[in-house]
Every structure is written in C-alpha cells, then in structure tokens.
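We now fix the convention by which a protein and its fold are recorded. Here is one such record, which you should read through line by line:

>
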Amino acid sequence: MADDGLEALLGSNQRLQEADFSGLLDGLQEGAKDLGEPGLYLLLLLVAITLTRWVPYRYWRYLHRVMPLIYLALTAHAVLLAPLVWWQQPSGWLMALLAAGGSVASLQSLSGQIGRSRCYQGLVQAVRQTSTSLTEVVCEMSQRWPGHRAGQFALVTFERGEGAHPFSLSSADNASGRVNFQIKALGDYTRKLPQRLSRGQAVTLEGPYGRFDPDRGRRNAQQVWVAGGIGVTPFLAALEKRLVDADPARPAVTLHYCTAGAADDPMVARLQRLTEQLPEVSLHLHDSRQGQRLTADRLRLHDRRVDLWFCGPKGLASALRSGLKQRSLSLRFHQESYQFR
C-alpha cells in the first residue's frame, strides 16, 4: 500500500518483483490483489470494534467469526504475491511456517472444532434466583465430565442460538458430576436467565479452564483472599474444597469480602456458614453502603511474606496494589483475569 512512497525513498530497483504466473495461477494472483487492501481495512475495523466493545456480545461473536476468513484471504494475498526469491530465504521459511499454522487454526475455527473435544453434555437440575441480581444454577453432568479444580470456569451453553458464556464454577468437585454456578445479572441475557431456564433443560459445558486456585499459595506466607461482588465465586469453591479434602497442613486464611449491601447479599450467609466450619479461615465483611471500603491498611497483614489472591473490580485491585507498594513485603498478587474480548 505504500509502494509509491517506498520507491521514492529507496528507488524502484530496491523492490523485489512479485511472482509472475500464467494460466490459472495468474487468475488467482489477480484475485489475491483484489482481496488484500479491503481485507486489511475490514480487519482493522473488526479489531477496533473488539477493543472498544461498543457492539454487544451477542452480535460481536458473529463478527468475530469473520476473522478466520480475513486471515485466509490475507494469507492467499501474501503467498501469491510475494516474490519467489523471498520464499527461499529464512524470513520466507518463517512466514511459510506461520501461514501454515494460522491456516490450519482458521479452518479449525470455521469448522467448529475449537474446544469440541472438551465439551460435555448435562441437564439443568435446579434454578434459584437468590436475589434480584443473582441466579444460582445447578447442573448434573454426564459421567464423562472430568471434574474441576477450585477457581476454574466453564463456557456454558444453555441455548444454542445464544452461544456460550463464561461462568466461574462456584462449587468444589466431589466426584458426583454436579456443578454450581452463581450468575450475576450483568446484561439482558443473564438478567432473564431465571425465566429462560427450567429443570431438565439440556446444557453444554466446555472446559474446565483456568488456574486461579487460592490453595496453591506459598506455605510459608500469609494467605489473604479478597473477593469483590460476584468475584467471590472461586473462593466459594475453594472453601468447599477445604471441607471436602481436610488437610491440617493448609495455612490459615484471612478472607475479605466486599459487598454493596450485606443485608441483601445471599453470599454473606453462605460465606458465614462455610467459614464457621473452617476455624483456620477468618472472614471480614466490608459493606460499601456502610462506608466500609477495603484499603491496604485494612488487610490485617502480619507477615513480611504475603500471598494475596484477588477476584473483583479492577479499580479495587489497583487501589490495593498501590497501597501495598508502599510496604516492604515479599508480595505475590494473584489476580483473576476475566476478559474475553
């Protein structure tokens, strides 16, 4: 696209000549030329839409499926128009390897093969709306379900037309095939889940994925867990895991739960029930409606070595990181990253 400027800067004799074919390949080369520039513009537009996130997910996921087609078109453009002598050089070998790998991945994406080997069928066993903004969904999975670790998530499909949504697994694995999800109403689809789901409805889970396991901290460090709102789900699974798999060697934990209204939050009662059975876990509630905002000074740190596991709003994480930088600590800040576009 910048050939005129490059020729003016470097001279026309510095430019390698495009491959010159005849017959069928010549026709393909002309088609590749036509695909290059519009394909690049379309790619840039889709990337901008993805980064700005102004298109709702239910529409964006269809736009995202165009990406592999654009990749294949631009690959054909490069393969057919790059000078033949260039493919005989190390840079050409590397490009050929990358183009082949990307083309295989694109074909897998277009044929729906990505994640298919990790899909498992099940049934919705129960749907409970525990508050105006929170729905608990219990699923019974088939015997093929491989089980999961605390802190993992799954891509859940309740309706084929809606597609998969990522939800954290909020229960520990007890080999029964039953899994729980705590789903917060963050959009039109999740807000209507209590009315759209029913007992016995088919569900597909892809996964489990993720490595956010609070019990994987250093044994010789103080363990601090911080949950904000629906970010409590991986910690619920971790607490249940402690009940199922008792291990006296596990270190004590200080759990901070931040909520915007403890009186109406069903998670408060559940956390209290779990921690009452776990004497090594101390629970501290922070209700923003009561002005009880969590800061670095309120983390109750008493050790120089600290493992802090965080799942919640980014603003709270940034504030805690900033406050902890002022201290002389051997700190490991584990933060759940939950962005899918």
